Citrate synthase
Amino acid sequence: MIRTLGRVALRRGHRGLLTGAVRGLSTGGLKEVLASKIPKMQADVKQIREKHGQKVLGSCTVAQAYGGMRSVKCMTYETSLLDPMEGIRFRGYTIPECQETLPRAKGGSEPLPESLIWLLLTGDIPTEANIAGLRKDLASRAKVPDSVTKIINGLPKTMHPMSQLAIGTLALQEDSVMAAEYAKGTPKTMYWDHYLEDTLNIIARLPEVAARIYCNIYRDGKMTPSDPSLDMGANYSMMMGYDNPAFHDLMRLYLVIHSDHEGGNVSAHTVKLVGSALSDPYLSLAAGLNGLAGPLHGLANQEVLKWIKGIKAQLDGAEPTKDNLTKLCWDQLNSGKVIPGYGHAVLRKTDPRYTCQREFALKNLPDDEMFKLVSLLFEVVPAVLNEQGKVKNPWPNVDAHSGVLLQHYGLVEESYYTVMFGISRAIGALANLVWDRALGLPIERPKSMTTEAIHQLLEAESA
Ligand code: CMX
């Protein structure tokens, strides 16, 4: 099949793609699909750049330059797009549409993460056969080298799980196809192929690295061996010691919804930025994970659970009410802290990633005490934040809900939560990175200004 595709590519004159299509492992049909789509997309982007290169997408004000570049349209990102009111679309599909359309595990009710990997990489809803091929391919890549396991096992148990995940990702880098091929002088037309190989190897291996970190820190190092015949959600859960099918379904949902949130967020943009220097996917992802580990970004899921546990402790057995929760929210704000899990730099409505987790809870754990607390906070926090009058978006984001679901099934160690976010974010950010290389995007280099230079600009304009 791969050879046939190679011949077709040669006939069409895609010499770079020919070599791309014939090298390495079969990817369960995935590489073939990409190889057929990339030339069309390359031609489309070439035409847009030639014909409309001077069209202005947006401007950048002084306020935006000092203000975290909010809303400045200055990059492309192919795998997802975020609308402030509607929320995320993965390759054009909303979360409810993904839940409806993407293939599920037998007996499960949430989309398979493998189906999202296919969707993000190709833009197509996969068939069952596509998924079977991809799972087989990922299984063939899943072995984590002993040297990597040794490095993870040697880390102090007190080191934060996110630091361990970044180290584990870097330890895997020794196997980078891109790094090895670049050293040999691979042509540019092959970059996407090498990035795809690395991406699939990372996606296949990272769950075991993450599960080992979990078991080392919280379970005396006893890890259930990987069973690559299971889907990614079930296998990752089992390796961590969770055999409840409902938890496996939650894990599938978790891995799908955290995967991608367009290109401007800290983790996705870091992966894109670092990758633009042709740093291989391991190096790029490790950098992105370090951004995800910040409390205003992915670490917020840890902070939410800590905060909610603190609320419970302060209530000291008293029934949570709108009144006592309102007071505790003000205490949090008045102590100079943010309310974790609320607000967003782009969204201006409740995050659909929050909503789908709430629906999961309503279906599976409606009587959970912590879920009831989170639900009551949903009624209280937006009013408090609105009254405070600073936030642009008082509504909950993805992190306001995830921990409460996990703790229901026994995963109570909140310092681990961001690791799971990282496993998922790897899927989206790396899928986009493959396309960045396929489209030949150059190294990123936006212009910065000093305050002195801004003064000079203003003086020149007023002269
Ligand atoms: N609690 C208290 N204050 C908040 C707030 C919150 N949840 N969200 C925003 N604010 C404050 C900001 O700190 C800012 O205050 P200053 O003017 O004093 O600096 C002001 O409101 C305006 O901020 P904004 O424009 O509404 O929000 P930003 O785009 O600057 O920041 C975010 C977005 C997510 C960092 C912010 O809402 C926040 O800190 N939320 C809590 C942390 C969190 O949940 N992060 C996870 C986001 C999702 C993710 O990436 O995983």
Residues 1-22 have pLDDT under 50 and may be disordered. The chain has two domains: 2-69+448-462, 75-445. The first helix runs from residue 2 to 12.
